[in-house]
Amino acid sequence: MALLETRNLTAFYGDFQALYGIDTTLDAGETIAIIGANGAGKSTFLKAIAGLIRKSAESVQFDGRSIGETRAADIVKLGIALVPEGRRLFPSLTVEENLLIGGDGRKAAGPWTLDRVYALFPVLKERRFFAAPTLSGGQQQMAAIGRALMSNPRVLLCDEISLGLAPIIIASIYASLPLIKAEGTSVVLVEQDIIQAMKAADRVYCFQEGRMSLTGRPRDLTREQIHRAYFGS
Amino acid sequence: MTGWLDALIQGVLLGGLYALFAAGLSLMFGVMRLVNLAHGDLIVLAAFTILVIAQKFGIDPFVAVLVALPILFVVGFLLQSVLLNRTLGRDLLPPLLVTFGLSIIIQNGLLQMFSADTQRLRSGAIETASIALGGGIAVGVVPLLTLLSAIGVIVMLNLIFYRTRIGRAFRATSDDPEVAQLMGIEVKRVFATAMGLAFVVIAIAALYLGLRANFDPTIGPARLLYAFEAVIIGGLGSFWGTLAGGIVLGLAQTIGARIDPEWQVLAGHVAFLVVLVIRPRGLFPRAQD
Predict the structure, then answer these.
(1) Residue B149's closest CA among B157, B161, B139?
(2) Is A90's Cβ below 8 Å from some Cβ in B?
(3) Nearest to B179 among A84, A104, A151 (CB)
(4) Could you tell me the pLDDT band of residue A1, with boundaries at 50, 70 and 90?
(5) Whole-prediction pTM
(6) Going from the N-terminus, what domains does chain B have, and what CATH number goes with each?
(7) CA nearest A80 in B: which residue?
């Protein structure tokens, strides 16, 4: 049975429908990537799972339970953590406080502690007592991932972790993913950087204007298929 | 010369009272971005609460306030969760209107129950006790306790905000309520807790309000004005700034009164305007916002 599943997931912003019946599955230990152009509904998909957008109870299943109507503050307690788009660290908190607050929400035994996060991203330890906004973009992204890991999630949702970063920084952030997966965490990546996404993911879903346009294993998909699923036509 | 030195000392002590008025307001704005127009009336309401407890059980106001603290914490918690949480959102107008209405309800409710008679918290000899500093200057024990309490409250609030988990949650929720939820924080409960804490500060402010001078149900709005001025002089969101703001206001008033007694209140408002012109974000603004 899948660890996390969406069934006919639809989502609205007021009258605007952002998602039209999305079906996805994520097995334990698996990494999936959601790709698609701007406005395809990728971030909405993650926000819906994280409980920030209202939808029907049955549309999200986690570990055999319907969690579609569970509130965001309770979703994290179940073991689903979101790394939000644009990092969104708390500016009045230090780097270390940002990490600690990630662990406040869920008291679950697990591999991730302050020391383990600092071992994964040593630069954060050097900057631990600095205010979050003083970090560079790449360091902020590391802190945002570390903050999510502090709740020892079973599922880590990553929204555009390459956004606005230099290629060398993106590579170093993606280099941390295998270490996170090695702890048994399942990962959902939302990415515009298709090459990174295809390298990191076991399976790929492509969204186009709120609908699923393609799904498969990276090695089975042709460039031509992806192009069509991404841009339409 | 002695007269001026005396004015400075009394001004700093008076500043302690204004800082107490302002600290609760600063806390509410800092965490919830709530501009509470009923703040002065809530202080008066707390003063009546202390008065009733003191009279009913025949105890000293300093003891009565200890009884009042947990009660007012619960009142604040409920006020936020039942009423004020519903008003918070992108629009700034609903909380202004609701707290304005609350102000009118509290004033008239108190008038109905206690009449317009002036009241006072009675604590015996301590009310008039003073300590001679030599050179013809003396400081009152109650004003001194007011300032010390204000400093104590500010230290306590800073410890809570910067050394505890709930304080971390206060700051994170104030920064970004949406992401705070992703950390498992119940935003509404955090707000209610912050309001409960603000009511504790209000109770302490009310104790000194009632000990230092007479009060009646209608004096709230003027206290609100002083509290606002202290918060804005100090810079929004900084507790030490709020203390400094209270002291600036207190000093301006006593110095103004020293020049001409009619200038007391005016001098405070002028000092406020001068700070706004020179430092529009206050003396100790937060780094961001």
Answers:
(1) B157
(2) yes
(3) A84
(4) confident
(5) 0.93
(6) 2-116+123-278 (1.10.3470)
(7) B182
